[in-house]
Design a protein that fits this description.
With 343 residues, the protein is an alpha/beta fold. It has two domains: 6-128 and 281-299, 3-Layer(aba) Sandwich (Rossmann fold), CATH 3.40.50.720; 129-278 and 308-326, Dihydrodipicolinate Reductase, domain 2 (2-Layer Sandwich). The protein is built from ten helices and 15 strands. The strands form two sheets. A nine-stranded mixed β-sheet has the order 14-13-12-11-7-10-9-8-15. The chain has a six-stranded parallel β-sheet with strand order 3-2-1-4-5-6, sandwiched between helices. α1 links the parallel β1 (6-11) and β2 (33-38). α1 crosses α9 (280-293). The structure holds nicotinamide-adenine-dinucleotide.
Length: 343
């Protein structure tokens, strides 16, 4: 294991950037990284430098690319993900990229061309792969504790009025589905495996500040014959408490409730896990730094990231066409922020 601290630059000192910065501050105190920050907003970098003890600042991403920084942690608006990743890969930087991978499959495939054959580590910062409740559920599912899964459900019912770039459909790549919903898509893909087809419906009645949809219901057909559904919305002012996930199997049920995971089987209900705190972003970043120092393959690969995006894209196609959409997608040009050019 390398003992030299790795030079990491956080690119984008916004909402999630701040959560990442807290972790790098700890990693720097442990002597594992040297932490730098980059943002086009001078005030933000100044605040982050002081608050999280960054060693240096950048106001221009091209200066990061030309520097001795070894890792970029990209926390930028969705429409900048592809360009920022390809540029970093071209100069040999390791890349941790916030979800979603990109705003279109075409961009995703350009990212692949950019990172393949490079001696770099790439990981999608999909922190839900590190959420312990989901991990525990998957472990029990894989052990076939509930027999054959029949139905997997995911829910995220919130009230949230986005600001800034999230209001633009093209900057976002859509609405709630590509942003919040991609986490749920990843959760169902993680739990249920490969997906044969999707059907989705969307509406936009509550959060009129955004151009994209505020509410989506997505049905999934897994290749195993298991079925699944996701409900994701930002538009519900008085949300009822919902399980993040429920997995119904032939022999029992596993579900999440307020950070706890339960198993109901043979008329007995057992608590499998109770979370103290959600450390998923901490786990994610520590894991990625370990992958670099120990030359390991990152957990959330490009292929997983692309699959999550492909499922989201198929859902958007279904929303526009009112048809079931089969995977893998044949047409790669579809861009969710544009009019349908996938026909
Ligand atoms: N994992 C999660 O739970 C989670 C939560 C929130 C956001 N995210 C993801 O993180 C990413 C960022 O979202 P956010 O909510 O933090 O956005 P944000 O708007 O809060 O922050 C983005 C920052 O990037 C800066 N920026 C924009 N263009 C730049 C450029 N070219 N160079 C340098 N800085 C630039 C902006 O000034 C801003 O400070 C998105 O991909 C989003 O989906 C993930």
């Amino acid at each position: 294991m390398s003992s030299e601290p790795i030079k990491v630059c956080l690119v984008g000192c916004g909402w999630i950037g701040e959560e990442h910065a807290k972790i790098y501050k700890d990693l720097q105190e442990q002597g594992r990284v040297e932490f730098f920050v980059c943002d086009v907003d001078r005030e933000k970098v100044k605040i982050f430098k002081e608050k999280y003890n960054a060693k240096g600042i950048f106001l221009d991403y091209y200066d990061v690319l030309g520097s001795s920084i070894e890792v970029v942690d990209i926390c930028l608006p969705h429409n900048q993900h592809a360009e920022a990743t390809i540029l970093a890969a071209n100069v040999g930087k390791h890349i941790l990229l916030e979800k979603p991978l990109a705003t279109s499959i075409e961009e995703a495939d350009r990212i692949f061309e950019g990172i393949k054959d490079k001696k770099i580590k790439f990981m999608l910062a999909e922190n839900w792969r590190f959420i312990p409740t989901i991990r525990v559920a998957k472990e029990f599912l894989d052990k076939r504790e509930i027999g054959e899964p029949l139905l997997i459900q995911g829910n995220s019912i919130q009230y949230f009025v986005p600001s800034g770039w999230r209001r633009s459909k093209s900057d976002m790549g859509g609405g709630v589905l590509i942003d919040r919903g991609i986490h749920l898509i990843d959760m169902l893909y993680n739990l249920g495996g490969e997906i044969r087809s999707v059907y989705a419906l969307a509406t936009h009645k509550s959060i009129l500040e955004i151009e994209g949809e505020d509410t989506v219901v997505l049905l999934m057909n897994f290749t195993t014959g298991t079925i699944g559904n996701i409900t994701v919305t930002w538009g519900i002012k008085k949300p009822l408490k919902q399980s993040l996930f429920v997995i119904y199997g032939t022999e029992g049920t596993i579900w999440e409730d307020s950070g706890k995971v339960f198993l109901l089987k043979n008329n007995t209900c057992e608590k499998l896990y109770e979370a103290m705190t959600d450390n998923s972003i901490r786990e994610e970043i520590f894991h990625f730094i370990d992958c670099i120092t120990e030359d390991k393959e990152p957990l959330v690969s490009f292929n997983i990231a692309r699959k999550d995006l492909e499922i989201a894209t198929a859902a958007y196609i279904s929303i526009q066409s009112n048809e079931t959409v089969f995977l893998p997608l044949k047409e790669k040009k579809y861009h969710v922020g544009e009019e349908a050019d996938w026909i």
